[in-house]
Design brief:
This protein has about 90 residues and is mostly helical. It has three helices and two strands, in the order ααββα. Bound molecules: zinc ion. The site of zinc ion has 7 residues, from β2.
Length: about 90
């Protein structure tokens, strides 16, 4: 399943386009520039991600959206990926 893993890797790295960035900026304007998980501010090495609670990035309902630190988002994504039985985020 080498091709499958490569596809997932590239979508994680570059799957968020301009529309997603605009939505993230809008959420920050509405809710404030902080992490909804821990309440902390974004850091240069740990910016805020736009997280989709149900894992469906096409579900743009406000209730499905959370601003959270990239680190926390990555941990969640790693957990979700672990469900699929592949080594999650190795080497990052
Ligand atoms: Zn946080």
């Amino acid at each position: 399943m080498r091709a499958y893993n490569e596809r997932r890797g590239s979508s994680t790295a570059q799957g968020y386009g301009a529309e997603h960035q605009a939505l993230r900026a809008q959420l920050i304007a509405e809710r404030g520039n902080f992490c909804e998980d821990c309440g902390g501010s974004p850091m240069p090495a740990n910016p805020l991600d736009l997280d989709h609670l149900d894992g469906n990035k096409f579900n743009r309902s406000r209730a499905n959206l959370r601003l959270r630190h990239h680190d926390e988002h990555s941990r969640k994504t790693a957990l979700l990926d672990g469900r699929w039985g592949k080594p999650a985020l190795v080497g990052r």
